[in-house]
Amino acid sequence: MELRFIVQLAIIGFTFFMLINASALLVLAERKIMGFMQQRYGPYLVGPHGLLQPLADILKLLMKEELRPKGADKWLFTLAPILSVTAAFAAFATVPWGAETTFFGLLDEPVSLGAADVNVGVLVIFAITSMGVYGIVLAGWSSNSKYSLMGGLRASAQMISYELSYATALAAVILLAGSLSLREVVDSQAGSWFGFIPSWYVFLQPVGFIIYMIAGVAETNRAPFDFPEAEQELVAGYNTEYSSVRFALFPQAEYINMTTMSAVATDLYLGGWHGVPFLTELGLGWLVFLAKVGAILFTYIWVRWTLPRYRYDQLMQFGWKWLFPAAVINLVVTAGLVLYFNA
Amino acid sequence: MPETLVFWALSGMAILASALVIGQRNPMYSVLMLIASFGALAGLYIQLDAPFVAVAQIIIYAGAIMVLFLFVVMLLNAPQEDAAEWDRSHPLRQRGVMRFGALLALLLVIQLTWALLQANGADLPVGARGNPEALGSVRTLGRILFTEYVFAFEATSILILVAMLGAVVLARREGDR
Question: Best mutation site among A130, A136, A158 for testing chain B: the one with the most B CBs within 10 Å?
């Protein structure tokens, strides 16, 4: 019992540690991949191949003076970045990232890899990410600057619009799996069809997967949907007035949100830690999970440096007139098929 | 014992936050206090073994509806509540209107007291009869909503739809296409 508790704590600590590292590595990966796509080197001076660049960036930000505009709302200005990053970390709490394991016989009973196992896990993640909007919106409002305010307004409108399609796409997978627990959704994707196609929901839900990915990009405010911080229009959007650590928390929250989005996509559509049978048997399925999350994150960065930003009205048109109807049709068709085949 | 402590902490937070919603002069803080109150309510639902209701409360009220509230407050960007409401000549400050308001408030207090006196432990909702654990499950909740309470459910959704259409019609000015 005692040992189990310690192991559980260690898993939670490890999840937290990995998330922090993910945000630091993504900063580097983003700049490296951008450099590669633009036929440049990217950062390469600090450490081997520029590996220590994120550390240098963070140190630089820590040394900067913390500024607060005179007209800013004191409490909310401080609260906003904290809220952003807390929501980002908390959202990952119910994401399972590996099969249940005894750590090669160390424990008597298997323990689940992931910070917490909740039977309405999918909804908890969704609820906490929807809380993340407040960080951005409050940052925009409390700065008392017109660019920040515009950024905050855009963020709230955009996230509300795309949350609908996102949730509707999720619902279709939940219908297929018949469970709201992410672990059960993943385990229902074990095995394969005809012996060679892995039975992942991405093959049953191709439309849903695409909708999920598009809405995910919009939810994390990434290009081509980065309107809350469109630098050509709004200086830097909602974080214009921020500096130092408070500023650093916003990109960190964004990168952690990206990681969560990719991890949830892996769990829901790509079979989580299933797919490479011999690794799963060795109890190293979480390596497969990491590889899949990495692939999705790469796609995120790839999309950012390939596509130009939309126009704001195009974003709203696309969200409400194409994406949401497509998500609803996908859900209705899935529900019909599930009913037909289960009956 | 710890459960009781958590209960009192959460309900105290809910009541305090709700009181602060009307106590604030800055509408932005009112909205935030309302969110805090919803959060405390969600915690109470979890204590009642109804995690689905708790999460739905957060997603729908704190996550969607309050963001819209915040959006409107930001769009109007009113630092203080409208000063005209404190003006004696304001239509809402007329004696007849205020008497009517007081009457409605009294009615609500009577209703609430009556409802609280009526309710007791044995009076659980339908799905929980005989099986209190099933109350929180999504399956039970969905089944009850679409069988026993289907009329209320559909009537509510039509009501919301009508309100939405009404808002669109009202917001669209003459001459707009």
Answer: A130
Cis omega (within 30 of 0) for bond into A43: no
Helix spans in chain A (H)? 2-37, 53-63, 74-91, 121-142, 146-177, 182-187, 201-204, 206-219, 231-234, 244-269, 277-282, 285-304, 312-317, 324-342
The residue ranking higher by pLDDT, A47 or B44, is: B44
What pLDDT shows up at residue A68?
A: 81
Closest CA to A212 of A169, A260, A160: A169
* Rounded mean pLDDT, A31-60: 85
- Paired residues of A113 in beta bridges: A98
Residue B31 in contact with residue A130, Cβ under 8 Å? no
Q: What is the mean pLDDT of chain A?
A: 83
Residues from chain B that touch A130, judged by Cβ atoms under 8 A, are 58-59, 62-64, 67
- pLDDT computed for residue B127 by the predictor: 45
- The dihedral sign for the CA sequence B130, B136, B137, B138: positive
A137 and B63 within 8 Å at the Cβ level: the answer is no
Q: How confident is the model at residue B104 (pLDDT cuts 50, 70, 90)?
A: very high
Give Cα A90 to chain centroid, integer Å.
12
pLDDT of residue B174 exceeding 80: no
CB-based contact A163 B64, cutoff 8 Å: yes
- In chain A, what percentage of residues exceed pLDDT 70? 96
CB count, 10 Å around CB of A331?
21
Cα dihedral A178, A180, A182, A186 in deg (nearest 10): 0
Q: Answer whether A137 sits within 8 Å of B62, measured CB to CB.
A: no
CB atoms within 10 A of CB A298: 13
Name the pLDDT band for B162 (thresholds 50, 70, 90).
very high
Q: Sort A144 into a burial class: Cβ within 10 Å, 0-12 / 13-18 / 19+.
A: middle
